[in-house]
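Action item from last week, closing it out:
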Amino acid sequence: GVTHGPLIHDRAVSKVQAHVDDAVSQGGKVLVGGQKMPDLGANFFQPTVIRDMTDDMKLAHEETFGPVAGLFPFATEAEVVKLANAAEVGLAGYFFSKDVQRCYRVAEALEVGMVGVNTGLISDPAAPFGGVKHSGFGREGSSLGVEEYQITKMITLGGMSQPLQGS
C-alpha cells in the first residue's frame, strides 16, 4: 500500500515547499496535498496537485524532484509542447493520450531525455536513463549506458600497398 517515500534531505523538502508556495502566490490552486508531513518524518511531503499553473512559476522552469504535479491549461499540442520545451531542464516528460498519432507527434517534439506516454513509470534497468539541456548529458543503464565508459577510436591507414619487410 506504500506509493511514496521521503525526499532525500531537508533541502529537497524546502525546495518542494518553495515551489508550492511560489505557485500559490501567483494564483495556482492546490487541489490536493501541499503540506509537509512531519508526523511521518522530517523529509515527507504530501503528493500535491496544483491547477491554474503559468509559465512564470518555478514549477515551469526548475526541476522540483518532489511529489508535485502542476496542471497547465493549454488549447493546442503546439502550445503545450512550446511551454514544456521552454524549460532549461529536460530529464523526462509525461503525457496521456488515446490518439496514437498524437503520442508520436508529441513524444518526438518534447525536448527531454525520456518520455512516458500513458504511464508515470518509465525507469527500468534495461532502458537508458538520462536527460538533455541542464538535466544532463549522456545516458546510464542499459547497453547504451556502457558507451559512456568506452572510447571509440577510428584509425585510417594509407600507403598500404608496400610489400612486407624482408620479403
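Closing note: The CA atoms of residues 89 and 133 lie 5 Å apart.
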